[in-house]
Amino acid sequence: MLEAKGLYFSYKKGIRLIEDLSFTVSSGEILAICGANGSGKSTVLDLLAGLIEPISGEISLDGEVGQGYLLQNAAQLPLQGERYILGATVREELELGLKTRKNEKGLIELAQSWELAKLLDNPTENLSWGEKKRLAIASLLAGSPKVFLMDEPFNGLDYPGTKSLIKDLSRIKKEGLKLVVVTHEPALLKDICDMYLLLRPGEYLFTRDKKDLAALEDFGVRPF
């Protein structure tokens, strides 16, 4: 389980962006984080990834507490994460994710599961936006993280790409991964999402009941 207890965080003294925030995400669950610009969505992801520390409060992952543990066991796809691809080819990028050039069987299986097998020798700079997105996700998941954090993963995708990503998220959810997804379009996840965290500075609503999503517009988010 990923658990946040009483988190406080601010960038400016006296102005608390995150205040007394608590929630849980179990294995095989998807949490969608929603809110207007500046509400703290990406900040929550950075806290969960261990990139920044809360002023107070605690984050535990499978019972382990500490920024170092989060850094080792949480994978984060940042906004426009496709720009962070380092490998010159699809093969090289997946090898970086697997941290080995010797596991050819594992590489092929990974490429097949993300529809990248026919692209292994293609230069990454020649990939489409959707292909880069799949490659970035596959490379991050190759390290077998305990929780996967995604910041606006549907950004820049066309309808087929969006539909494909939703299918992929459903698949890795069924494999037991804990998923946290920041999105301006929560309706895209309505069929696979287990709970929602609605944010605005200093306030939040964490709910597993979709009836509570009548509050989306109050938090600056487009309603279903």
End-to-end Cα distance, whole Å, is 28 Å
Poorly predicted residue ranges = none
For the largest beta sheet, what order do the strands appear in spatially?
A: 6-7-8-3-9-10
Q: What percent of residues adopt helix (DSSP H or I)?
A: 25-40%
Q: Tally the helices: what do you get? A: 6
CATH topology of the domain at 2-83 and 148-219, anyone?
Rossmann fold
User: What is the total tally of β strands?
Assistant: 10
Q: Cα-atom Rg, whole angstroms?
A: 18 Å
The CATH class of the domain at 2-83 and 148-219, by name, is: Alpha Beta
Give the strand content: 15-25%
What is the CATH architecture assignment of the domain at 2-83 and 148-219?
3-Layer(aba) Sandwich
What does it look like?
The protein is an alpha/beta fold and 224 residues long. The chain has a domain at 2-83 and 148-219: P-loop containing nucleotide triphosphate hydrolases (Rossmann fold, 3-Layer(aba) Sandwich), CATH 3.40.50.300. The protein contains 6 helices and 10 strands; from the N terminus they run E-E-E-H-E-E-H-E-H-H-H-E-H-E-E-E. It has helices at residues 41-49, 67-73, 90-98, 104-113, 129-141, 159-174, and strands at 2-9, 18-25, 30-35, 56-61, 64-65, 74-77, 147-151, 178-182, 195-200, 203-207. The strands form 2 sheets. Strands 6-7-8-3-9-10 form a 6-stranded mixed beta sheet, sandwiched between helices. A 4-stranded antiparallel beta sheet has the order 2-1-4-5, covered by helices on one side. The longest helix has 16 residues, at 159-174. The two termini are 28 Å apart.
